[in-house]
Write a structure and sequence with these properties.
The chain is of the alpha/beta class and about 140 residues long. It has four helices and five strands; from the N terminus they run βββαβααβα.
Length: about 140
């Protein structure tokens, strides 16, 4: 099974209260298979981006994905995953190897950076999680 992932993470403040969002689609994007919207506590924006991808990879594996395409609006994260940029931040360095391992556990995988407006569904899920938590 091929799954397409759109993921996003964000924080209000950097660091600050953070949330993650992701939408998982079937191969031709005709059926939404799952979505994630979760408050993750205080962290940086970049750490939230990684945590969103991590959660989406776990969900894709649960759904039986053999191959995946990942779309993120963080060029930094995509370039780090490609090995073009170094991972310097300790909080990211701590989770980076596990995420790389998860990516390689799929038969084929790819990660692409996209414009923010093309990732609006995942972004909306981030804001939904933050709004829900911060209202309480």
């Amino acid at each position: 099974m091929h799954i397409i992932i759109y993921s996003d993470g964000g924080s209000r403040g950097n660091p600050g209260p953070a949330g993650i969002g992701a939408v998982l689609w079937n191969a031709d994007k005709t059926k939404k298979l799952a979505q994630i919207s979760k408050y993750i506590g205080e962290t940086t924006n970049n750490q939230a981006e990684y945590r969103a991808l991590d959660a989406a990879l776990d969900r894709a594996k649960e759904l039986g994905a053999k191959t995946i395409e990942c779309y993120l609006d963080s060029q930094l994260v995509v370039r780090q995953l490609e090995g073009k940029y170094k991972v310097k931040e300790p909080g990211i360095a701590a989770i980076f190897p596990a995420i790389k391992f998860k990516l390689h556990s799929f038969g084929t995988h790819s990660c692409h950076d996209i414009r923010r407006e093309l990732n609006k569904d995942a972004d909306a899920l981030v804001n939904e999680a933050l709004d829900k938590k911060l209202k309480n």
